[in-house]
Design brief:
This protein is α/β, with parallel strands linked by helices. 41% of the residues lie in helices and 18% in strands. It is a multi-pass membrane protein.
Length: 195
Amino acid sequence: SKNALRVLGAAYKTLEDNNYNKESLESNLTFIGLVGMIDPPRESVKDSIFECKNSGIKTIMITGDHKITAFAIAKELGIAEDESQAIFGYELDDMSDTELSSKIENLRVFARVSPEHKVKIVKALKSKGNIVSMTGDGVNDAPSLKAADIGVAMGITGTDVAKGASDMVLTDDNFSTIVSAIKEGRNIYNNIKKS
């Protein structure tokens, strides 16, 4: 996990015949090993996150991965620097909205979160005066996409529900496209201010 790998354990059990108790299938197993898998971020993402940082945009990772794995990926991408910036979703359950708001500016990685946690995160960020853009692709992302100032759904992998809840659809599912769109938007805004 510390090497940004998703870890899967493997075990087996020999069954004598087809008459077995389904409740006991997962007991008395023989452990045979662990498998580490990686789903690497796209090459352009690290550069885009660096561009965001230089433009005053804070990138936060919200993921279903384990906190250790998520932090390792976030550190590699330049999103987080210290493990104290990562938190499990269940830790949010014990925090009041006020407590989360007081800590939100220092948090960069949220692991194993529920749809309710995502909404709580968006609201906490907004309570500190942040303009929040949220990306998502699943039905469970719809509430947080709606809660954000700008909900961005994935156009290729996104569900119709996520697209319907969003303000914008990212046709190529590429984070770098968001960064390019922000740059263009800022240029247009600056040109309008000049005229």
